[in-house]
Each structure stands twice: as C-alpha cells, then as structure tokens.
Amino acid sequence: MPVSAIMDTPSPGIAEPASDETEALLALSRSAGAEARQIEFAVPDAYCVTCINAIENGLSRLPQVVSARVNLSQRWVRVVFTPERGSVLDLPRAIRASGYRTHALDPVADNRQDHALHELIRCMAVAGFAAGNIMLFSVSIWSGADAATRDMFHWISALIALPAIAYAGRPFFRSAFAALRVGRTNMDVPISIGVVLATLLSIWETVHSGAHAYFDASTMLLFFLLVGRTFDHLMREKARGAIANLARLTPRGAMRWFPDGTTTYVPVEDVVPGMELLLRAGERVPVDCRVIEGRGDVDLSIVTGESAAVSIGPGASLAAGAINLAAALKVEAERPVSESFLSQMATLMETAEASRTAHRRIADRAAAIYAPAVHAFAIATFLGWGLLAGDWHEALMSAVAVLIITCPCALALAVPIVHAVAAGRLFRNGIMMRDGTALERAAAVTDIAFDKTGTLTLGAVRYDGQVSGDPAMLPIAANLAGHSRHPLAAALLAASPAAPLPADEFHEIPGQGIEALADGVWWRLGSAPFCGGPQAAAGDGTEACLGRDGRVVAVFRFVDAIRPDAASAVATLKAAGKRVEMLSGDGPATVESVAEALAIEQASARLSPEAKLVILKGQAEAGRRVMMVGDGINDAPALRAAHVSMAPSSASDIGRSAADFVFTNGRLASVPFVLDIARRADRLVRENLVLAIGYNTLALPLAVAGHVTPLVAAVAMSTSSVLVVANALRLNLGTNLVQPEEAVPAWRQAEAART
Amino acid sequence: MNGLVILIPAAICLGLLALVTFLWSLKTGQYDDLKGASERILDDEAPIRRVDGK
User: What biological-process terms (Gene Ontology) are attached (chain A) (predicted)?
Assistant: First the structure.
C-alpha cells in the first residue's frame, strides 16, 4: 500500500478527523540553526535531473522552506524549513504533488553510519598522502643516496609517517585491541603488530643512521587496507540506504477517539489497553485491538499468510500489522504495543537468532591459523639468528622483515574486496546485501524454503474466471465493482470493462458487498449470503457473487496470482540440486494448488510462526543449510532462524529487517542468482586466500634468510594486493538478471520519453 | 644539496595542500551525491545552489 493512499483516502462512515501527524514528522526533524529545522524524505522514484528540479522547485515554492536539496545517490531530499511559517505536513504533500512517492526518514541511524564512513575516507586520504610522499624519498634512497642525505630523508619520512600512522591506523588498532581484550584474534591483530613493529624498528634505525627503514612499507600497507575497507563499507552503505528507502510509514502512532467525537494523535507507545482508537481505511492496525463499531474487511496476508481478505464486525480481534481495507472502524486497544503481535514476533526473532548455528567468517578462521604461524616464524627467526650468528641486531632486523613481508595485506584484502564486488554486482541487479557473512552463508545452502503469500505469489488477488452464470454479467459486475475499494472489486474491474448501469446510488455495506437499484432491478455484488445464495463452501481461492433481485446469477473466482517467474526459478533451483519446499500460513487448498502449479513436492499449510521455527530447527539439526525466502510478519522469526534469508521489497518492515538479502526487482529469479553469486564469490575468496598465502610463502624464506630489503617488501606487497583485487573483479563477468535501464521504474521511463 | 632545502619543503607543502583540499571537499559534502552532481550539470536553467543550502 503506497503511503499516498493512506494519507489521501477519505473514510466513509465515521467522520474524517483533522490530521495530526505534524508531531510525528516534527519528532523526526532536528534543529538546523535558529528557528530552522531539518528533515529528510525518501524519494525512491527520483532518478534524473527532471526529477531533481520537479521536487526541489515544488518544495521551494512553500513559504516555510528555506532550502531543499535532492540527493540522487541516496534517493532522499533534505529540507530545511521554519515551522513558524507553515506546517511541516505541507512538505510531503508538495513532494507528492510533484508526482513522487515519499515518506519521512529516521535520521538517527543514518548519522552514525556516515561518521564511520567519513572516518575511513579521512584515514585513507592521510595514509595515501603519507605513502606517496615517503615513497618519493624511498626511491631516492634506493637509487643510492649518500649516507648524510639518506639520514635526512629517513628523518623527514619519520616526521610524515609517525602522525600519519597514528591517525590512519586507528581503525585497525581499535579492532585489534578489542579482539585481544576478549582473548580472541582477528586479521587486525597481525596487521597492527606488523605496522607498529616496523615503525618502531625504522625509528631505531633512523636514530642510529641505519641503512634500512620501513616507513614506506607501513604507510603503504595501511593505505591499501583502508582502500579495501572503504570499498567494502561503501557497498554496504549503499545497500542499507536503499533498504531504508523502502521503509513505509509504519504506524508510529494512533488516532485516539474521545466520546465527544474529537480525535487526537498519540504515539503508539502511549496507547494503553481500553483506549478507544479510530482506524481509517487503508491504515495499518497499530496495536492488537478489538472492533467496537463498524464493519469491514481486513487484509491479513502480511500477518498470517492468508491470501483472502477477512470480513470483520464488532467484537472481532485484530492483530497489529493487519491493513484495514474498506471503511473506518472504531476499535478498543486490547494490549499495549510491547505485548502486541509485532512485539511477540520480535521476541521470537531474538530467541531464533540465539539458536542459529554460529557462523565464523572465513577471514577470521584464516586469521586464527595464520597469525600464530607468522608470529612463530618471526620469533624462530629472531632466536635462530641471535643464537647461531650471535648478532642480535641483525636477528631483530630479519624478524621484523618476516613480520612485514607476511603482514597480511593481500590476505586482509582477499575477502572484503570479493564481498564488495559481489555486493556491487547484486546491487546493480536489484538485490541488496546486508553484509558479507550473508554471502558466505548463502554459499553453503542445501535447501530453500519458500513462504507462499507475497513470496511465491504476488500477494494480490487476480480475477480467475467465471464459475457459473451468463458471461454477459461480468461487465455489470465490473460496473458495481468500480464503486468499491475492496481488493476483489479492484481485481474484477481490472479484468473487464464496465457496462453502463442506469443506477443513481450505490451503497457499500462493509464486510458484505455493494448494491445498486437500476431500472427497478436490485443488483448486488458481494458474498453469497448477501446476494441471496447459500454460504459458499470453503474451496479453492476466493469467490464473489453477483445477485439480481435476491438470486445469484453469476459467481466469479479469484486467486492470488503466482509470480510470473516463480516456476522457472523453482526449476532452476531444483536443477542445481537444491531441495525446495513451501512453508505457508494459508489454508491447505490454496497451498496445494500453488505447490502443484510450481511442482513443489513438499508443502506445509496452516503453519504458525512457531511451527515454521520448529521445522527450520529440525532441518538445521539434521545438517541441512536452509535458505528461507519470505515476506510476512509471521515469517520474520523463520527468516532470522534460517541459515540465510531473503525477502522481497514488498515485505513487511519486520520481515525485511530480518532478511539478509532484499530483492527490489520483483523477480524470484533473484534466489538462484544470489546462490550463484555466493558460490562463485566463495570460490574467489578461497582462490584469493591461496594466492595471498602462496605469495607470502615464497617471500618468507628470503625474509628468514635476511635478504629482504625495504625495496623487496614494497614490491612484493603491492603486486600481491593488485593480483588479489584483479582476481576479485572476475566476479563481474557473466549474465545479469536485469538490464541497466530496468533499474528505472517503467512508468518513469515512459514519462522521460514524453518530455 | 642546496636545491633540496627548497625543493623538499615545497614538495611536502604541495602534498599537504592537496590533502587539506581533499579533506575540505569531503567535509563540505561534495562527495555525498556524485550521481546527483553528474545529472545537475545537464540542467541549464536552475541557478547554482550551494551544497550546504546557504
């Protein structure tokens, strides 16, 4: 449901209250100088200079707007405004008036991420500056500068290197220190030890007019590593921003209803049981509640996986997250938000995560073996030279050379660079990856478990044909349907042109159907009892009847449409030797028909969120690595419990935040595509590790023998790094899932072609 | 040797200048929206607006 529909739909029945979302928006804004405030809105459809102009000009015309600036990379617009001169509510309205969907963004999470990235870029700049300048002096030294010049160059190098290393090395030192403090080791430990020891030795050499200083090696090492880390961070940042852009305005508050007919906006945390609330058509249910007045239909597809809309009346209980479809309802809160359905799912998710088999990153596993081995070699070299040759200074030099030559520059780049390239490739194909470990986990997948509603199917009903009656009745039914907002009516209207019906008035009876009087004939469209027929037996799909003067004259059938490429995606997965199964919360009849259409042998119906968890746990204990693909609130715990998980961008907020991958291209072919990329990335990571370790093994004997000079160290380090990066770039080869122009929404393309 | 006394400080100062310029451009948000900047250049009519909106 697009946000605009929520904001713009008038609600029949109960009077429309004055909108009071101002406070919610103001809470998301922050101070920007005297009187001015700043807020960001997502504009996911903006993609060109025309969009920038339309949005910025639309906003700038408002008196309260000080400035508006679209960020096309992140797809949001930052607005600075003065609340005194006009309502904050006009801002999203102005963006929608320009023709773009929008919702306010939560600034807190964004700022923290920005700081981490900016720190990395600053460190990279400083390390790059230091490495470049020191290399100038080093080249002169290697070319044979005389002793006095060499000493001077060493001193100047030290002057540049010391502050640069202290500044640019912080990300590594911090991480290494944190790991050591809890008694563990990671890739940053050997890096930090190598850099610090090389620097200390170089200072000692400089002070004693020695011939070899490694300032260039240590700064260059930091520079290469920071480049890799920044790329890794940038890719994840991009994916995270895109996911944040998808977030809909989840109910942060509710409309409180007072006996005198007035309403006021209350934050969802302040809703207490017994409070009376107004729920307008198109809105999501904020907390678990009970209907006290009004009739209507609710869409539970994202809550329970049930594909058909459910009719409700006074006394019915509603779970948080359901969408109220037809008419405004008066409801009474039953549970506070902390005990509502959504929160119960969040609790289940936490316990599910705790039971997930711990996955150790490949890089950390490599570091756990590599670091002790390297340090043992360095100590052996030091003792060997000291005891055998008796020259402790030469021994120390050789030991530090061992540390520098084996300092895992290529090794530390080997994994993140592959992940960054993979994330970029996936991003261009409309798939967001949350982090690199997800890719490592996806490489080991043996089973794929699909949810039905909204995942294998589109989660929206489609007209499936007439069961009985005269085909000429369809256009008449379509006319009646045109006067209702029920999803079945919308599907009927989309399937057939409407015949003219000389009726003056149309009455919609929420929860039952719509009726009209034309030429003395009462036409009714809705449930079977409403049209004068017997209660329909619970069958396959959903049915609607057309009644004429109290007799059913036609019956129409609707089904939840299967995603166009679901069958081919399932077939591809099976061909790749994966076991495919379906875990659904919907009824057995629908589940079976979908399973049959897609040739999925294993399908379970009517599963509660807990039951899905139990199935996944059982499979994990049997040694299967399951990828869960789902979208609903009820799938969220299963998404978290599975070895790796994926959700479409149309998923519930909680489902999307639980998933490791989110695909925005709407294609189930994304599932085999992700598995293929993961498998290839896994192979490249292993190749890279072999390359990097192999390179070090070749150089190690030279270092132990004491033949490594700073020149050899510099050349070895840069070649191995370049080799690893070049190997990772091979991941970009191969066919893409979507063509680049498809990344732009089709209706935007059409618009661009017109102008 | 005399040449070095002038050349080395000059080289380092130029390098520092480049570093400071980069850090400044980073701080004023010129790398925040690379895609937007490449599109905005196609816009003939709009007045030039500063990145920080002042």
Answer: copper ion homeostasis
Chain A residues touching residue B4 (CB < 8 angstroms): 149
Minimal CA separation from A39 to chain B, in Å: 13
Using CA coordinates, name the residue in chain B closest to A48: B39
Alpha-carbon gap, residue A609 to A530, rounded angstroms? 34
Among B22, B33, B43, select the one facing A71 at the smallest CB separation: B33
Rounded Cα distance between A318 and A329, Å, is 11
Query: pTM for the full model?
Result: 0.75
Quick check: is B13 in a domain?
Answer: yes
| Residue B22 lies inside a defined structural domain of this protein | yes
User: What's the CATH number for A3-104?
Assistant: 3.30.70.100
CATH architecture for residues A462-559: 3-Layer(aba) Sandwich (3.40)
pLDDT confidence tier of residue A1, bands split at 50, 70 and 90: very low
Rounded CA-CA distance B41/B32 in Å is: 16
Q: Are B8 and A153 in contact (CB under 8 A)?
A: no
Q: Which residue type does A376 have?
A: A
How many domains, in total, are found in chain B? 1
Rounded to the nearest integer, the mean pLDDT of chain B is 79
Secondary-structure class of domain A441-458+563-678 per CATH: alpha beta
CA distance A396 to A402: 10
Q: Is residue B35 part of a domain?
A: yes
B54: nearest CA partner in chain A: A67
| Core vs surface per residue A261-291: b (16+ CB within 10 A) or e | eebebbebeebeeebbbbbbbbbbbbbbbeb
- Cβ atoms of A82 and A35 closer than 8 Å: yes
Q: Which of A373, A417, A416 is nearest to A190 (CA)?
A: A373
Longest dimension (CA), chain A: 116
A160 touches B: beta carbon within 8 Å: yes
CATH 2.60.40.740 fits domain A253-339? no
Is the CB of B36 less than 8 angstroms away from the CB of A70?
yes
Residue from the list B1, B4, B12 with its beta carbon closest to the beta carbon of A133: B12
DSSP code at position A101? -
DSSP calls for A463-488:
EEEEEEE-TTHHHHHHHHHTT---HH
B34 and A121 in contact (C-beta within 8 Å)? no
Among A349, A335, A323, A252, which residue's Cα sits nearest to residue A656?
A349
pLDDT at A334 over 60: yes
User: SS3 of A298, please?
Assistant: strand
A139 touches chain B (CB under 8 A): no
Q: Do B35 and A53 touch (CB under 8 A)?
A: no
Residue A258 identity (one-letter amino acid): F
The domain ranges of chain A are: 3-104, 113-240, 253-339, 441-458+563-678, 462-559
Vertex A614: Cα angle to A608 and A619 (nearest 5) = 130
Report chain A residues whose CB lies below 8 A from the CB of B34. 73
Which position has the higher pLDDT, A359 or A310?
Answer: A310
Among the partner-chain residues B19, B35, B46, the one whose CB lies closest to the CB of A125 is: B19
Range of the domain at B30: 3-43
- CA dist B14 and B21 (Å) reads 11
Query: Across the interface, do A73 and B36 touch by the CB < 8 Å criterion?
Result: yes
- How many Cα atoms within 13 Å fall on the side-chain side of residue A364? 13
Which chain B residues have any C-beta within 8 angstroms of a chain A C-beta?
A: 1, 4, 8, 11-12, 15-16, 18-19, 22-23, 26, 31-36, 39-40, 42-43, 45-46, 49, 51, 53-54
Report if residue B48 sits inside a domain.
Answer: no
Give the tens place of pLDDT for each residue, A413-463. 888 888 888 888 888 888 888 777 888 889 989 999 998 888 888 877 778
Residue A412 reports pLDDT greater than 80: no
